[in-house]
Amino acid sequence: MDNSKGAVERAKITYFFKETFRAHSKAEYREIFSRGLNEDNGGVTGAFPWLYVRAFFALLMLFTVNTLVLRLTNNALYVPSVTFLGGITFTVPFIILMLELYPKRDISLFMLISVLVIGGTLAGVLAQIGYKFVNIKNEWVSAIYTGVLEEVCKAIPALITISLVKQKNPYACFLFAATVGAGFSVIEDMGYIFYYSDKYVFYYHSDIQATVAMFVDRGLSSFCTHILWTGAIGWAYGIAKRPLRSFGIAIFVLSVALHICWDLPIDGWVQVLDISLCVVVAAALNITIVHLSRTRTLYAEVDHTHLNEVIIREAKEMGVRMRFTNAANLTFALTCTFLSVIVLILCAMPIGMEYQSIDFDTREDFINYIEEGYNLKADRDRKYDPNGVNVEERYIEDEGKLVLAYVVQKDTVDGYDGEYYYGYFVKGYGLDSIAGSYVHGAEIDSIAVELEEIDSRIYCTEYKFGNESEWAFTVYPDKLIDYVYHANDGSVTAVTDAEEFEGYGLLTALCATAFAITAGCTVVLVAFIIKLRRVQDDEKR
Question: How far is Cα 117 from Cα 46, in angstroms, rounded to an integer?
Answer without folding.
Answer: 28
